[in-house]
């Protein structure tokens, strides 16, 4: 099976496992896990942030950012399709009792006009819900791993400064953005109050995220991490894996991006997908199946029969994510399989034009 469902599917390498075995550990709830402390210090320097907190998942990291920066009954301004809204609307309501005020942008880039519109959409007198936090995502997962341009991040940041809003970046794939743009990680961290990164995506570690940013935010987040059940003990082996991944796997993301472009060039030959090569910026390709007249579930089950796994993101969009465990040989084979599936669908449509 070639598994292109997600970049969370990578496996720890033998070298990483070896590194984990030798990690020095202690009780992190007492601040005594040496490997966790080393990873947090390393990230503080790499991102040039005031403080950093190792947490189990990207979801907990985002949730801590919300809990620490928004009071109950107040609002988070974000895009409908960002992870925080798309997958985390439940936890946000449950854990923080805040309102997600979302806008469905056409291109995934939330801009100042969008924020003004959301703020002005309701009465904002002292008796009503106050917007307190703006969140963006980089890269933007539901827009094919698109890059959020740094100049637009800076503009949003400046807007939040003059409107008494906090600013959070969900950077689960910020390493992909960094590799694609060559913009230093600390440059991204400069224009936010809080930033979340994931070690278990492109870096291919088995576990963990880092919530970083202003000390005032991280101080709050420490308390809530414990309350959310994320206060861990001898977790240093996982911190060591993340540390190893940062030092040895960052450059490998470049290869993921090259292989994604290679696959996109193959898939360009299939006109029904209407793939725009200049829109393939990082490690994702979305296959639009509308013109083939099949749903993503139908398409994916045909791919699976050939030995290829894809993710059914939307009704007519199948998602491809390239990651560290995928080789050039896999990419060429995946292209052949998709080609075969498309031919099969076209042939079926000749005989039976209604397989929707
Ligand atoms: C994966 C991801 C997360 C969090 O994922 P976890 O599975 O909770 O670690 C958050 N935001 C984005 C954009 C993601 O892709």
Helices and strands in order:
Blueprint: E1 2-3, H1 14-21, H2 34-47, E2 51-55, H3 58-69, E3 75-79, H4 83-86, H5 89-96, E4 99-103, H6 112-120, E5 131-137, H7 150-162, E6 166-171, H8 174-181, H9 185-189, E7 194-198, E8 209-213, H10 215-227, H11 236-248, H12 252-267, E9 284-288, H13 296-306, E10 308-309, E11 311-314, E12 317-321, H14 328-351
Parallel strand pairs: 1-10, 3-4, 3-5, 5-6, 6-7
Antiparallel strand pairs: 2-8, 7-8, 9-12, 11-12
Helix pairs in contact: 1-11, 2-11, 3-10, 12-14
Bound molecules: pyridoxal-5'-phosphate.
Pyridoxal-5'-phosphate (PLP) is lined by residues 57-59, 62, 83, 137, 141, 170, 172, 198, 200, 209.
Task: Describe this entry's structure for a reader.
This protein has 356 residues and is α/β, with parallel strands linked by helices. The protein is built from 14 helices and twelve strands. A seven-stranded mixed beta sheet has the order 2-8-7-6-5-3-4, sandwiched between helices. A three-stranded antiparallel beta sheet has the order 9-12-11, covered by helices on one side. Strands 1-10 form a two-stranded parallel sheet. α1 (14-21) crosses α11. The mean pLDDT is 97. It binds pyridoxal-5'-phosphate. Residues 57-59, 62, 83, 137, 141, 170, 172, 198, 200, 209 line the site of pyridoxal-5'-phosphate. Pyridoxal-5'-phosphate (PLP) is lined by residues 57-59, 62, 83, 137, 141, 170, 172, 198, 200, 209.
């Amino acid at each position: 099976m070639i598994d292109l469902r997600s970049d969370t599917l990578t496996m720890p390498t033998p070298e990483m496992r070896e590194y984990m075995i030798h990690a020095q550990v202690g009780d992190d709830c007492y601040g005594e896990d040496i490997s966790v402390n080393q990873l947090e210090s390393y990230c503080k320097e790499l991102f040039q942030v005031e403080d950093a907190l190792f947490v189990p998942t990207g979801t907990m990291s985002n949730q801590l950012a919300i809990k620490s920066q928004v009071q109950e009954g107040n609002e988070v301004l974000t895009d409908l399709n960002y992870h925080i809204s798309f997958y985390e609307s439940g936890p946000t309501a449950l854990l923080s009792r805040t309102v997600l005020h979302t806008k469905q942008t056409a291109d995934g880039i939330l801009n100042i006009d969008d924020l003004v519109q959301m703020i002005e959409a309701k009465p904002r007198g002292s008796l009503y819900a106050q917007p307190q936090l703006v969140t963006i995502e980089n890269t933007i997962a539901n827009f094919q791993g698109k890059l959020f341009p740094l100049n637009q991040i800076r503009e949003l940041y400046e807007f939040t400064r003059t409107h008494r809003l906090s600013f959070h970046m969900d950077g689960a794939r910020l390493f992909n953005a960094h590799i694609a743009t060559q913009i230093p990680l600390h440059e991204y961290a400069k224009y936010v109050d809080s930033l979340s990164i994931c070690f278990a995506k492109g870096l291919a570690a088995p576990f963990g995220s880092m919530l970083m940013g202003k000390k005032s935010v991280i101080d709050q987040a420490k308390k809530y991490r414990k309350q959310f059940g994320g206060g861990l003990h001898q977790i240093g082996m996982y911190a060591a894996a993340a540390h190893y991944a940062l030092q040895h796997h960052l450059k490998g993301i470049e290869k993921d991006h090259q292989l994604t472009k290679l696959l996109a060039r193959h898939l360009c030959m299939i006109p029904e997908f209407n793939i725009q090569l200049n829109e393939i910026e990082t490690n994702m390709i979305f296959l639009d199946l509308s013109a083939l007249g099949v749903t993503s579930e139908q398409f994916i089950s045909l791919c699976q029969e050939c030995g290829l796994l894809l993710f059914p993101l939307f009704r007519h969009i199948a998602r491809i994510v390239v990651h560290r465990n995928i080789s050039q040989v896999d990419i060429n084979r995946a292209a052949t399989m998709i080609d075969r599936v498309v031919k099969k669908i076209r042939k079926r449509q000749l005989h039976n034009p209604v397989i929707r």
